[in-house]
Amino acid sequence: MKVITFGEVMLRLSPPGVERFVQTDSLTMHFGGTEANVAVSLAQLGLETAHVTRFPDHALGRSATGYLRRYGVGTQHVRYGDGRLGLYFLETGAGSRASQIVYDRVDSAFSRITSTEIDWESILTGADWFHWTGITPALSQGAADSLLAGIQTANRLGVPVSGDIVYRSNLWQYGRSPQEIMPALTEGCTLILGNKSLFSELYGVVGSTFIEAGRAMMRRFPTIKYVTDTKRNSLSASHNQLSAKLYDGSTVHKSRVYDIQPIVDRIGTGDAYMAGLIYGLLTFNDPQRAVEFGSAASALKHTIPGDVNLATVTEIETLEAGDSSGKLRR
Amino acid sequence: MKVITFGEVMLRLSPPGVERFVQTDSLTMHFGGTEANVAVSLAQLGLETAHVTRFPDHALGRSATGYLRRYGVGTQHVRYGDGRLGLYFLETGAGSRASQIVYDRVDSAFSRITSTEIDWESILTGADWFHWTGITPALSQGAADSLLAGIQTANRLGVPVSGDIVYRSNLWQYGRSPQEIMPALTEGCTLILGNKSLFSELYGVVGSTFIEAGRAMMRRFPTIKYVTDTKRNSLSASHNQLSAKLYDGSTVHKSRVYDIQPIVDRIGTGDAYMAGLIYGLLTFNDPQRAVEFGSAASALKHTIPGDVNLATVTEIETLEAGDSSGKLRR
Amino acid sequence: MKVITFGEVMLRLSPPGVERFVQTDSLTMHFGGTEANVAVSLAQLGLETAHVTRFPDHALGRSATGYLRRYGVGTQHVRYGDGRLGLYFLETGAGSRASQIVYDRVDSAFSRITSTEIDWESILTGADWFHWTGITPALSQGAADSLLAGIQTANRLGVPVSGDIVYRSNLWQYGRSPQEIMPALTEGCTLILGNKSLFSELYGVVGSTFIEAGRAMMRRFPTIKYVTDTKRNSLSASHNQLSAKLYDGSTVHKSRVYDIQPIVDRIGTGDAYMAGLIYGLLTFNDPQRAVEFGSAASALKHTIPGDVNLATVTEIETLEAGDSSGKLRR
Amino acid sequence: MKVITFGEVMLRLSPPGVERFVQTDSLTMHFGGTEANVAVSLAQLGLETAHVTRFPDHALGRSATGYLRRYGVGTQHVRYGDGRLGLYFLETGAGSRASQIVYDRVDSAFSRITSTEIDWESILTGADWFHWTGITPALSQGAADSLLAGIQTANRLGVPVSGDIVYRSNLWQYGRSPQEIMPALTEGCTLILGNKSLFSELYGVVGSTFIEAGRAMMRRFPTIKYVTDTKRNSLSASHNQLSAKLYDGSTVHKSRVYDIQPIVDRIGTGDAYMAGLIYGLLTFNDPQRAVEFGSAASALKHTIPGDVNLATVTEIETLEAGDSSGKLRR
Amino acid sequence: MKVITFGEVMLRLSPPGVERFVQTDSLTMHFGGTEANVAVSLAQLGLETAHVTRFPDHALGRSATGYLRRYGVGTQHVRYGDGRLGLYFLETGAGSRASQIVYDRVDSAFSRITSTEIDWESILTGADWFHWTGITPALSQGAADSLLAGIQTANRLGVPVSGDIVYRSNLWQYGRSPQEIMPALTEGCTLILGNKSLFSELYGVVGSTFIEAGRAMMRRFPTIKYVTDTKRNSLSASHNQLSAKLYDGSTVHKSRVYDIQPIVDRIGTGDAYMAGLIYGLLTFNDPQRAVEFGSAASALKHTIPGDVNLATVTEIETLEAGDSSGKLRR
Amino acid sequence: MKVITFGEVMLRLSPPGVERFVQTDSLTMHFGGTEANVAVSLAQLGLETAHVTRFPDHALGRSATGYLRRYGVGTQHVRYGDGRLGLYFLETGAGSRASQIVYDRVDSAFSRITSTEIDWESILTGADWFHWTGITPALSQGAADSLLAGIQTANRLGVPVSGDIVYRSNLWQYGRSPQEIMPALTEGCTLILGNKSLFSELYGVVGSTFIEAGRAMMRRFPTIKYVTDTKRNSLSASHNQLSAKLYDGSTVHKSRVYDIQPIVDRIGTGDAYMAGLIYGLLTFNDPQRAVEFGSAASALKHTIPGDVNLATVTEIETLEAGDSSGKLRR
């Protein structure tokens, strides 16, 4: 099983523990990006993965590559060139104090990607899944074009495509709107992560409930077989409740609700869900189990420092089976 | 708006995380002192502040000055001289294990202050508030005398004065009792932080409820316009509930109750309340809002390592408005 | 009061905080072993202790000795020789993610101990208690033989003996079964920590309740005066409930139930109970108080990093008296 | 004595010790910028300083302000606005391995400065010195314009001006050449740090020796009273030799040569020289002593982590007086 | 260009900086093994590499794999199975205090390898070089047999083979002597790293000088085209001098002598030489340049923490060209 | 062999590496005191030791005890009582920047010792050596009296006494001069560490050379059999040269000169010499070897972080034998 992901990877810099930026003198390094996070999670679950991206050709770009490799993601398709390494600064909150992110990703090497730089044909040949998110087309025309080429190649090669249609309004700075760009990308997708307000805002597709909105999306984009979403109840920065649902065209499969306390690191928990769901759909012939596996994966990610889910199949299955006792394993 | 504070600043030394002294090999440095903590909080809220104190004239005294400056507190009135830097050793507890403090502040440079060393006239001219606490007069005759001179100067210049009349019996070692010293300091105060048992013990002012005791204080000390106090319910070292109330001569304004879990650092949370309250009284024409703002400030302080509250106005207002969800802010 | 303990001490290596092995680049060192953990706890409580063990004769073996000495345990009976230092790698979990241990203790210097290496006569003369656990006889014939010699010497000298009959099936690799070895070790014990399923599995002693099983044990092993056990309800890796009970031949003394949140370090909490109980039995003439003291000791250990309980008598008594408020102690 | 400096301040991120980027998981934070480094040095020497710059209006910009304040630099003239915080990544070398810098400063908040944003009149009124470097005009038209306005205001107010005419060719990206920009900035300077090849390249001013080139500069720019330069002999990343010379229109004053081993941090050592020289010129009426003081300051900076020189007057004078014994001071 | 290496990889644990084991409470993690060190170096130089080894199938074995991957070494041929992860404890010295190693590698997963476990045919097909050392056959019969199978397969496929015939007498514990095992492994080697005393001890091949001994080795083992060795002059733990020589059957090519001060990490510097030499022989058609490149690579390794050389081709060529100035590179 | 030492132990707090106080946010903990340093060194060399001191009865006093125990020093004679724990703050220099100490030891628990608190009779019975320094009588009358009682008891019991007559003028604050106090302490000493200017200043004993001054001391104090001193040539904070000499009444035995570079930690190197010398005098019947052993011990201490020498006999003998190559020991 081989999964290809495409998107920017940023250097994440955060103070130790729950210190604030104004008081810290050192920063912990992680690397992350929503699509690469999915790739790392899937690599931990034992799938073959490769992440397609573009890094600056200097020591920090090489460090980013090393990070992906360390966690088992194939980096043979990484391109190196001009531009900076995208960064984000994360201050981790606690209790009633929210975590905060300062992005510093403008004009990154990734955003300077051009549509002809990636040889999608060779990359996607033999792949079993291709995953993208709404962050990529928001970054630059080149990124949007490259992505579209990737999705269309996947379609031609019969590779299933998942899209997390996350929309961050402050990213779309290059002169195009998501309404112009997103529909073409959504064509040919098999699985969409989103909710009814996004469907309405991005595509004008409306539905008063998740199921109706999902059904409407499937009518508008006939290749879509699954629509999924997560639900988070934020009680505090240290305490959340989480569940997920998956509509397969006939049934909405709902996961159990996880009560998550304490939260070690909330970043990348949505990507952990997506990775778990993709793993489930590729591995089990059972949408209910796939959504349960994805939710358990996401719940476990909350306990792991960094952007990426380093949980194993065994750990996820233990939690999915209802054992959240955290009993010492010798 | 300019606020002047006066008091000792100590070097705080604590093991990393929740380690115990007997097992640690390194100590984390912070600086703190109840009055300076108020100044730092107010500086974060955007007010101009200056802290008046006395440090030893060596590298550690300079480090203490640097700490105050880093957080925006004016240090132009700091005096340097003989004596040591006061210290305290803090071991942070968790759950059922209490935090512990070992004080080592005897004969500090601050306690050697003399009443003529501070030019209160020039310091307080143009100030909008002066804050002191019951720690200062407990340290030495010179500290008590200097404080009295400051309060009287403030009165003469029409600068409102707040006093947190905290009483630590083991501090009063120089031959005077708080009953001899505190009344003169309380004369001319605008705002007092204390409770009925303190009022009774220090001044012989009795009242069976907070409101009655407050009323009695106002009769005894006619300049007092506000009496305030906080209420803490300690469920464990990691879980507290907190609220505050403010009596303005007619009404007791009560804040909402904050459920605080987990507690990152409990030290300085009372000072954070005081700073928030002073900010509120200076900024809003609304005692209820001031006490709410102070309580929210104090609640947030529990999530921040160190003695000082590094929360911003926006963060406090968000919490005050009822959003304790801790949702990631991008 | 002097307590002698006997068993292996391992170097414990764990990533900082709640990091996973695959992501960490440094490891925190502690040392621990179930019997030595009891000795350290008792030393913190003010008793004289000495731990009998065998370390490799190199810098790491010397470091292990230094660790025991740091916490007040006598190391005059430590032997040095060939073999490795036993290790274990601990990954600390959080919430729904369990802590994990990878043991690496095969062929340790301790397991190479021979029955004639220890001069039990001189060690136990003047001792007030001797403690062992079921880990030791599982490691090697030499360890089992040495232990048996120790217990028999204690019996001859009239030193009370406690045994925690913990059974780890994967340890018994040297060709003997616990059913062959454990009964002779249990002869002559005064106090046994275990439960009815262990009694049945190891000795064929059955009883449908704790009290009945305890009574049956006392019939089978007439020297036993106390049977004890702890009960843990694992809600998550960060949240447990704990209590203990002690049967003295007539009554089952039950402790209060501690709700423990957050858990800083769960390792060694059973040993902390055992140490507290031994202290209680040696110090108070009151089994109920002993079991309460042991339970409070164990509850506090959950808040302390490392394998060993560094709580003091005062702290334990405060908690035992019902004060779990974690209020700052100045 | 009050010195004003103007220029960009960057967040410096470096691996601990001499680790390489590809192997590190954490970064140490410092802040630095050639002009601000001069201000910090001067503040340590006891002068009043204020640094004029522009930071992004977020937590990291506020951290940069806090850094300057911590070391006593006035930040009352800092502007906040759009744009990023400039960064640089420093890998510290050792022996034959060179230190390496990756700059990431494009489109910083500072480079977005506009010439009307700074109220030079009020800032420079009462100042005793104004310092700039060739980095600033290389960053953007707005930075060059702002600087020119500052220099001209200083001239009008009679404030002496020093310029370090460092030229980094890769910085000049906004369409103007240093040959177009630098001459107008150099008009009205009192002190120039540069060498004959720079004089030739930037201004077409030639001279076959330092003294002749200096004389030619003074003819071309009649306000110049001093021309200075440092000389570094790099034996390895850990071992350098350093000296300086100052031409005052009649004599070349040469400092002693410092043999520097080991080098703790080479960054900012030129700025330390400049600060020491400015201090010397402002304080001693003796060019020889000024250049000696500057050289000793620079030599000491090599022993101090970070960009800024935290040496005191006493320490510099001790070294200047020939005592490089490093004897413990109690 | 693709290089295959084969051998054990150990977890290296060392105190921070130059602390001693008896005083440290934390350990820094690296992974290393002489053959894998060669692979990592070559990967940094841009060659394709894959390391063949056997790890335990648990989190630490997976961490070891991640370490190799992070630095670009292919891990597709790593086997997982029973046994422990080999460890070594390194205390880094300084000046007159020597570094010390405590090995703890007995019965590792690697030593349990069996000769049929590795599919050498597929691994070595298409490879350009195969490297082994004398550590491997010292560990177990299975390791020796596996290695012999690898060398013979390489010979059959025409892949050049290098052997570092390092001899550690304390390793050979499984009943065979190096004199029995090494000759068959040396058959078919192209390049041998060793000296005349080793040649004599292991093979009875004698020669009174390096060149004569090399010539004798080539007569005894006709496939050998190169014999090489390094020479180290240890002035202190912080100061060494290093050079290398390469005999190609006609000429002894000697490198320049590097004066290395300070030494950051001496471990793996021989492996760095070997990697540089292999790179040189594969890339340049010039034995002199190859030995110079190898020596420069080794010299740089002394400045890099950990077992592996993270120097780049550019850095090595700069040093090889004589620039050891360590000048800052922007 | 059992050695008793007596004196204050202070908590040493220092920034990591070579950071300055004004820039650090954490401090590394060590404990040290000149006499206890001797005891720790001797314990590493395998002698039985016990240190007599007085600590405050709180967690930090207990930590100090734990520190001594960790390194094998007997703490059975430590007294606990009122007063503070003495502190000193150490900033470690490099190259031309000197290390700096800020003492904060006034009114320590040790200085409050009373002459009747120590049962010297039982402590010194069976001892083979007693060591003191000139720090102790400088601290308080009680300390001086206790020391005198100890020396006199040692004399009565026939225990040899060594005194390091270090004189720090700023310590003598309690109203007595060293000229009043030191002679009585020096009576009955066997070995004195000092130089001719000290002999002259403290006792009025003059001699124009070391040998003449030593001879004069032996005339004045007939019990003295050895006079010793070290000689340090400070080239920089990172580079020293060190040697020692010992006069035994007939011959001056001089050690070789050690060139020490780099210096890791210079504190306690004199105490390391003293410990080595005492060990040598107790163990070898050869004054020359004793002074060589002491010097080698002192040279090694410069490479070890902290106040105490953790070198072993083997390491010292290796260096003493002339091997300063620092070659890796496996």
TrEMBL record, chains A, B, C, D, E, F:
Residues 2-306 form the Carbohydrate kinase PfkB domain. GO terms for molecular function: kinase activity. Belongs to the carbohydrate kinase PfkB family. This is Sugar kinase. Keywords: Kinase, Transferase. It comes from the Bacteria. The lineage of its organism: Bacteria, Pseudomonadati, Bacteroidota, Cytophagia, Cytophagales. It comes from Spirosoma endbachense.
